[in-house]
Amino acid sequence: MGALWRVMVREWRRIVTYKVYWLCMIGMPLLGVFFFDTMLYNGLPERIPTAVVDMDNSESSRRFVAKLQAQQSIDIVLQPHSFREARDAMQRGIIYGFLVIPSRFESLALDGKQPTITFYTNDAYLIPGSLLYESYVTQSMLLSASVVEEVLLSLDITERRIETLLQPLTIDLYALGNPWLNYSVYLSNSFIPTILQLMTMLVFIYALTGELKQGSVRSWLLAARGSFAMALGGKWVVYTTLFVLVGVSLQIFLYGYMQFPLHCSIWRMVAAMALMVLAAQSIVIVILSVVPNLSIAYSAVSVVGVVSFSLGGFSFPVPNMYVPFQFLTNLLPVRHYFLIYANSALNGYPLYYCRSEFVALLLMIGVALISIPRLHRVILNYAKR
Amino acid sequence: MQRGKIIEIGQRLRCEVNLIFRYWQSEYCRIFRDTEVVLFFVLLPLAYPILYALIYAPEVVTNVPVVVVDDSRTVLSREIVQRFDASPAVDVVSYCANMGEAKDMMMRRKCYAVLVIPAGVATDVVNEKSSSLIFYTDMSLLLNYKALYMALTDVVLDMGVVLRQAAMPIDVSGSITQIIERPIPYTSEVMYNPTSGVASFLIPAVLVLILQQSFVLGIAMLASAYHEQKRSWFGRYHILHRLTGRTLCYVSVYIFNVVYLLHFVPWLFGYPQCGSVSQILLFSLPLVLSSIFMAITLSVCVQEREHTYLLFVFTSVPFIFLSGIAWPRYAMPIGWRYISYLIPATWGVEGFVQINTMGATLEQASYAYTRLWLLTIVYVVTAVLAIRYDNHRHHRIVV
Q1: Which of A137, A166, A195 is the last residue of a domain?
Q2: pLDDT higher for B163 or A279?
Q3: A82 and A192, same structural domain?
Q4: ipTM for the complex?
């Protein structure tokens, strides 16, 4: 036990002397949280710049434009006279979409000739594009409904009946866990742990290989009385503790301060966080013990860390990816953390339903433990060079 | 007298150009002798786009599993389910007898949402009541939710029309029934990304970011090599010789990368590609230059090779968000918007998406284009200051 303690104290001294550790362990995760929570503060982008090409310019078309303008999600910044002008504004990036009201709109509508409104949305920017599409659909449905209402009223149908006829079928939506459809809830809970995973991996590989570079492997092993397990364990305990502390503070911030959904015991999320940190470090151990040189090891760690943002399946769902990628996602600790989060904190399912994720994280740690003797040989080899 | 002066100036100039060329040449050696720099300058721009393109290659969400609890069991309810299932986004995997069973399927991740059709759905409308389909959906992935909800909305609108027709009083004439079926129809044109694909919108931005980040990482690695060797390999070169030589060297190495990233990859994966190639290349010049000078400026922070990874790998994440491809820039808090102005990739993404994806001309993208040139000027100045600071520090260490 004394050996382990000595390595830990030695490691702590190293951390205190290098500023870069503090920057990476505390600075960057904090920056990540600050970034996402200020960036997505609104939850949804509101007042998307858009344009209306009103070729009719009648009373009813102007009324429609006014109603459109009153929507929270839309901001009509331009009223161009032609499609060409509107498209030019779109290509210049001034608007994210526009709506064309055809000429003779009012008279055709009154005659029951069904004039068609056309929306153009710019899906080169997918999020504003699709939100704009939704707003356009809603508004044109309301417009249709107002015409239907007028026709039905003229037919002497009771108002109650009209209400039913306007919308005979509706959807009662229960968006479980995130009824506000808030982007921040969903991005913070996936991207912030992924940032933490990236920094955990980079700092851990730096902590292990730094000894080689500074030629201090001998003193490191001496501090552990020659036991490599103790030497590695000492480092591992220190970095795990620090990163778990940082991770839990992030969780407290998200679930406590930001009031994001937490429908399970906080301890389950803490356990998931601790296992994710350990599993991320395990990946570093495995990579170091199989990869032939240090620059490849660093690159491999960076690739795993960065690709996790996409391969974690936070934006594009894993079941829709190509099959080889579906297998690869299982190798990412943060993927399992995310599934535990979705099942537990977001949806509040019993622990039983995320057992396989916990087992997967434990397995990763197990593989790392098996490869420790190999890592020992590898480190000694590097030290000889 | 005057002739002598001209010859003198000519010789000076030749000497200067010579120095620049010599430095340019020596920079190649530094790049290609260092595996990690080659990794960042060559392998990263080659491999990353392919990897990302493959991850997002399916473009759209299809066949999201859904289960149905049908308490109505009528022709109408079956019609609703059939239409819902027919949407490419939806796969109705099972009927469940009750909510308990459906919830169990959901907890086992066998399905992503539950559609409950209440018992009265077929008769309500005749009894002057509107009825609601109840839709429970998991919210861990917004793309899934969006695909499902849009499909369900379409079904409900279509079925609403059918129900309305059925419930109209018998004496109403056919023409009126037709009018109220769809009085003001709409059509929708999705522009510049016709399938609303994830890759088609995200990858062009990623390509620009990869271009910038490969400079940041590679140049930082070169700077660290310089620091670690603590060797003055610049001798009598003036800062401007070095800066010009390096720039020429990087630009020449990146001619291939630029064509590969900004032209070949979008072509290979069939992303929208409407712009003129020559304008894209013209646009990429200030993008490359400003990225180089920013990278040289940032590389002062790096003193050990490993710092390159520790400090700069992380930055890709905020940079891609600041570019506004996902979260529109106008909706960002003002502080972040100002910071985004300082990053070449922000304007690079904006202009590249405009020209390449949206078929704009360079004139239409002139806002981003001029901003990139402004950034180039700003970062030239900071790069010179950074190199001077670095020299100063280096001398101090040597002394």
Answers
A1: A166
A2: A279
A3: no
A4: 0.92
